[in-house]
Write a structure and sequence with these properties.
The chain has about 775 residues and is α+β, with helices and mostly antiparallel strands. The chain has a domain at about 35-305: Glycoside hydrolase, family 65, N-terminal domain (Beta-galactosidase, Chain A, domain 5). The protein has a 9-stranded antiparallel sheet, with helices on one face. It has a 5-stranded antiparallel sheet with strand order 7-6-12-17-16, with no helix packed on it. The longest helix is centred in the middle third of the chain and has 24 residues, at about 495-520. It is globular and about 90 Å long.
């Protein structure tokens, strides 16, 4: 096992329901901006200060709207035919959070005067960010300052801020200055400023900014309005790209003065461009009429319902308890829920990976939502249906049939200029198909299969049936050449084992969907057959490809070779690689990486998990033993999968140590890159490590089953699972597991192979075998 970050001291104060910063250190500001980010799946905001910081302090202010992007031409050193032509990059949009405070003639700054009793807290239970402090100005005025903000989980277009000022040893002039800045740009990737401000408007209490991206043509509107306590006149003004509002008080010592700011945002993907201004202005004004407290209460109630389904309890390790809750909240804050958007690799917390969606969603993130909030899982899958035409065009670009989903994208088109790390990863098709299968299996939502899922399955099966070839050299088996599996250190290989198995699964899912639609949705089936040009000959080809798929296995080693060439590459001891040369992709030439038996992330081992019913326990152990010493885990997607399989084959210490790499990757900044944005797939991996690893949950063949054990450092852990309309609570202790059916129809499952059936309100406690 490669040396990992073990026993690292927690950066943020440990608390079961909070992430707190108790001292402001400018050198760590960049990281904290990502950690304290907020979002609701539509809108996201990095945790920058309302008043801003001097330019010498590392900072990446960011306000993002999921799915809003700009394009730029990809500049190639040497262009090759059929390469993608444009990047897509998530746009940093209108910055609405600015609030400056002046006491008499002194403007508040974290870097001037003295800061006492400072705390910045992300309340995980409530999804609210608070900052509180006492500021002693250079002239000795002591003032209590409080900042609070949240992005509504109830209405995706709305956000709220509250700022309070209390003079402690003085009386005099207090001035709030609220700002909205339309002159923003991305700090990375885009060469030009993406947004052009088209118009601004204001009244005394509020205003709006309308902007538009230059190339993609997406309009973005932001409106704000204000309320102050006690009441006082607000003076508004506007420039060509900014809004400015000022309100002043003759402050009395001990009295609190409060500014509430109500923000609404929308884009031309939500309403026609000519209607946007009125749309956001009405939203902002309605939110102000509702009031801060009522909006906050509704937001907190939504979070309470979320935690009722998604919370995981760990008794015995406060750091891990904090970590899994932080991860769960950030996943909720990042996931698109409108069917048009997805979840980016960095969520809505940073610009790295440019807001692109990857196969991470289907393989890692959808399971978290599927068993806690299945309606969000469906929305994430609906996004794939929405970009199906783009996937069809991508297949044509590669001279394939059917549909080929892009490796990284926002609008459905491939956004990566490196084909060896992108287009060659045909396995994305199978990841989408697999997620559709697991969704239908867990929800029995056959309407989704008929309306959207089956068409995706048919078009991805069509691609697989065209992509491979029946080779005499392989005994007439169906082979898939020049692909890349999940291990991105081995691109352009033949018969990647993971890809072939998953392609076979995809083909068979399409044939199963055909039978379901023909029997239960005959009209929809007839429409698809006619529109897609499907026929019996093509269905027969899919079956022939699946039945004759080449599935590599080495009898001598007792393992599944990762691809046709892997066993013949140069051996290497990865423990001998200097730590400063990790990750290899940033330090070694690709040709050097390709020639060695070195693996970036779980590949065959991921297959052992996803299609675990296809392999014996002995095969899983043999493959783990062979591939684990060869894996660098240069991707944060990898440790969770190795933890799950290690747990299954009985390597409990391995399982626990790999799990540790998933829970606090960002909180403790293991990779020193949390400032770039949070690792959403790894966060979901921490959920998988508990549910699929330590609890041993599987759902093969529609049968829910568990094989739990308790990590020896813990006293207990518990979680809830939604499955086929029922909600099951699972509690694992050292010698027993308790299952309680909280709601829904009777549910059958297995505990170490023992059948169990519970009705709502019933529970059972069963022993855990040694």
């Amino acid at each position: 096992m490669r040396k990992f970050h073990q026993n690292r001291a927690a950066i943020y104060a440990l608390h079961p329901w909070q992430v707190a910063e108790e001292e402001f250190r400018p050198e760590h500001n960049h990281r904290s901006e990502a950690i304290f980010s907020l979002g609701n799946g539509y809108m996201g905001l990095r945790g920058t200060f309302e008043e801003g910081l001097p330019c010498q302090i590392p900072s990446t202010p960011g306000t993002y709207i999921n799915g809003i992007y700009e394009t730029e031409p990809i500049i190639y050193g040497e262009f090759m035919a059929r390469q993608p032509e444009e990047y897509q990059t998530m746009v940093n949009v209108t910055d609405w959070k600015g609030i400056k405070i002046q006491v008499e003639h002194e403007e508040f700054s974290m870097l001037q005067g003295e800061v006492e009793q400072y705390s910045r807290v992300l309340d995980l239970k409530e999804g609210v960010l608070r900052r509180e402090l006492i500021w002693r100005s250079l002239e000795g005025r002591r003032t209590r300052l409080s900042f609070e903000r949240f992005i509504s989980q109830v209405d995706k277009h709305l956000a709220y801020q509250r700022c309070s000022v209390t003079p402690l040893n003085w009386s005099g002039q207090i001035t709030f200055r609220s700002q909205v800045n339309g002159s923003v740009r991305n700090l990375h990737h885009l060469r030009e400023q993406a947004l052009t401000v088209l118009s601004t408007a204001h009244t005394n209490e509020g205003g709006m900014i309308l902007s538009k991206t230059k190339r993609s043509g997406i309009a973005v509107a932001c409106a704000v309005t204000h309320r102050v306590t006690p009441e006082a006149p607000i003076m508004g003004s506007a420039s060509s790209d900014c809004l400015d509002f000022m309100v002043g008080f003759k402050g009395d010592e001990g009295q609190t003065y409060t500014l509430d700011k109500f923000i609404s945002m929308a884009t031309s993907q939500d309403a026609a461009e000519e209607q946007l201004v009125g749309f956001v202005q009405r939203l902002a004004e309605r939110s102000a009429q509702l009031g801060y407290e009522r909006a906050r209460q509704a937001h907190v109630e939504y979070l309470a319902e979320f935690w009722e389904d998604a919370d995981m309890e760990i008794e015995g390790d406060l750091a891990l308890q904090q970590g899994v809750r932080f991860n769960a909240l950030q996943l909720l804050q990042s996931a698109g829920r409108d069917g048009r958007t997805n979840i980016a690799a960095k969520g809505l917390s940073g610009e790295y990976y440019e807001g692109h969606y990857f196969w991470d969603t289907e393989t890692y993130i959808i399971p978290f939502f599927l068993y806690s909030r299945p309606e969000i899982a469906r929305r994430l899958l609906e996004y794939r249906y929405g970009i199906l035409d783009a996937a069809r065009e991508n297949a044509k670009r590669m001279r394939d049939q059917g549909a080929l989903f892009a490796w990284r994208t926002i609008n459905g088109k491939e956004a990566s200029g490196n084909f060896l790390g992108s287009t060659v990863q045909y396995h994305i098709n199978a990841a989408v198909a697999y997620a559709i299968h697991k969704y239908v299996e867990a929800t029995q939502d056959l309407d989704f299969l008929a309306e959207k899922g089956a068409e995706i399955l048919f078009e991805t099966a069509r691609c697989w049936a065209h992509r491979g070839v029946f080779l005499e050299a392989r005994g007439g088996k169906y082979c898939i050449n020049e692909v890349c599996g999940p291990d991105e250190y081995k691109p352009g290989v033949n018969n990647n084992c993971y890809t072939n198995y998953m392609a076979q699964f995809n083909l068979r899912l399409a044939l199963q969907a055909k039978e379901i639609l023909a029997e239960r949705y005959p009209e929809r089936y007839a429409e698809l057959v006619a529109r897609l040009g499907l026929n019996a000959e093509e269905f027969a080809l899919w079956k022939r490809c699946a039945d004759n798929m080449y599935l590599p296995f080495d009898e001598e080693l007792g393992i599944h070779p990762q691809d046709d060439s892997f066993l013949y590459k140069d051996p290497i001891d990865i423990d001998s690689i200097p730590e400063e040369e990790i990750p290899l992709v940033a330090n070694w030439h690709p040709l050097v990486i390709w020639r060695y038996q070195v693996i970036k992330q779980a590949d065959v081992i991921l297959l052992m998990f996803l299609l675990g019913d296809r392999f014996t326990l002995e095969e899983k152990k043999a493959n783990f033993d062979y591939y684990e010493p060869k894996t660098t885990h240069d991707s944060s997607l990898s440790p969770a999968i190795y933890s799950i399989i290690a747990a299954e084959v009985g390597y409990k210490e391995f399982a626990y140590n790999y799990f540790l790499q998933t829970v606090r990757l960002d909180l403790d900044d293991y990779n020193r890159n949390a400032w770039q944005g949070l690792h959403t797939a790894c966060m979901a991996g921490s959920w998988m490590g508990i549910v699929n690893g330590f609890a041993g949950m599987r759902t093969f063949g529609g049968q829910l089953s568990f094989k739990p054990f308790l990590p020896h450092r813990w006293q207990r852990f518990s979680f809830k699972v939604k499955f086929r309309g029922s909600k099951l609570k699972v509690t694992v202790r050292a010698a027993e597991a308790e299952y309680a059916l909280l709601e829904g129809p009777a549910l059958s499952f297995c505990h170490f192979g023992q059948p169990v059936t519970l009705a709502a309100g019933q529970s059972v406690t069963l022993p855990i075998p040694n």
